[in-house]
Amino acid sequence: MTLSKLSLRNARRQTGDYLIYFTTIVLAAALLYAFNGLAFSSELLTLSEYMEVLPMMIVFASIVVVGIFGWLVSYATGFMLSRRSRELGTYILIGLEKREVARLFFLENLIVGGFAFALGLLCGNLLYQALRAILLALFSCPYHFTLAFSFQAAGLTFVYFTMIYLLALIKSRKRICRLKIYDLIYFDRQNEHVVVEGSKTRQRLFLCSIVLAIAGTFLLLMGNAIIGILGAGCVILFLYLFFLTFASSVPAFFDRKPSRKYKRQNLLIYRTLTAKLATMGIVMATISLLFTATLMSEGTGLIFWGLFTGRTAENACFDLYIGSEEAEGISHEYLDYIEEHIPVEQSLLYRVCQEEKGEFTDYLETHTRYYPFYPQDSVITYSDYQALRSIAGYPSVELASGQYLIHCQRYLEEALEDFSHTIRLGDTTLTPAGIHTEHFQQDYDNGRGFILVVPDEAAASLAVHHYAYVAKTSVPVNETHYEALNTIRWHLCENVNRSYDSLRTKAHEEAEVAAMTAITIFPLYFLALALTMTAATILTIQQLGECRHYKIQYQLLQKLGMERREMAQTLRTQFAIYYTLPAIPPLFISIPFLLHTAGATEPGVMTGVFSPAMIILSTLLLFFLIYSIYILMAYTTLKRNVLPETF
Length: 647
Description:
The chain contains 22 helices and 9 strands.
């Protein structure tokens, strides 16, 4: 049999033995192609001027992802070399030269990589269509399925794959050529060396790792970049010390409670666990670090999404808004352009006034998380308020004589309900009549978080803070009209010595948030998927690589009289501990970090489905959904191959 035929046969066998690894490599190629396709798509890049940043963000994320997948391929290739070392050593014994055996191993892995790449391109085209549909939906553009192949994306993906595989295979080739026949035959018996010797030393370092975890998490929450880097260093050190010394804490636990060691199958589980952890602590720590980065990437992506969505919901409630603090009000240049070019169904010129005492502002500062922009309370007349509600599409409200309303962002509602305060404007005394919380452009324009709605006559003597123009248009205000209005704004500011006017359009706000979502969340989830797949695959490769050992172990237990139910329960427990252990430390690190980050955003934005609690829940559900797929595939394979057939 020629080397090429032998390589092809071994490649087919390798694909079957390491199906989960092969599937992950196919998905890796699909991910790289799909995201590269976004970067090279002229259709998507012209959706907004902000989308010009997307290729750079995807390339940056791809470099990180290629490094992650490179480590996966390098680790898996080395693992397969250790498992097949006896076979490769036998080839040398029967007369093949080392360089021929190295070429054989190189070719069969190259065949697997090439096949995975080709299949990944096909899957990547479908994944690209899904990402394209999501992007077009973000921009409210119609989606039509058009199967197209991007040669630029395929070429860049090929370059990435070539780098990943060549580096890993060259490393394995050098290892085969360097090892002696004896070392190669018994290479599969080599494990990771125990880094920390001595039980007491490991116990002290284990306690030290716990201290580092607490300190690192606390430093990450400080909000300072330099301190955050120090905190990240503490967290990384914690993970490696924790897993390098964890094996010593298990015997210490059973030494204090020896009766539990011999209860049920605890001794078998305990011995298997400690033996595994004592020899692969660095790998488990690296996987746990990848899981930590995964949870932070997914959670941060949701926080950005919530921040962008919340801001847009508040600032895009009107089709067109112009605000000016000039005494003469809204410039006729805006109004002339709008009348000539933009079809308006409803419009309103109105004033936002201020009540000098600022009692509501002072109250909110002391009773809730509120950051004032104006020292006084903003006020609007009831007639203008009714017109604005009509333009925004909200139902009308009633206001009796001698009363006032409050319109506020939802997070201020509870505090303002407790402040049942009678106000006096000139000679008029007003009592509270209710609170409304629809989106009302209240970042700065219609009040900072809240505005008081009073009868028209009560506001006659109040000072005007700024003038505003709001319009409801029959068609969205496109980018051409927005840029024309923006040109007028710059002209007035630079040549007429006016203050910088406020200009917002619903279409522009939505396009901006769609672009910001694409250039931040897509790369973050690209990275998160790569991290999860890599970590879960390495765990699975390690676990399924022990199938032969587990099978012998359970055959012996069968001969000793262990029942099937006990054997299955023991296998499930071993499996659950093995997969749960590297996921526990990331939870204790990432959950406080994400809660703090979500809570540090501007108030009133992260609400509803984007509240901090919902972000944590969504992050965990998404992470464990992907992780559970790998766990289920690995457990099914392990159970089928390990438990004796007679059962």
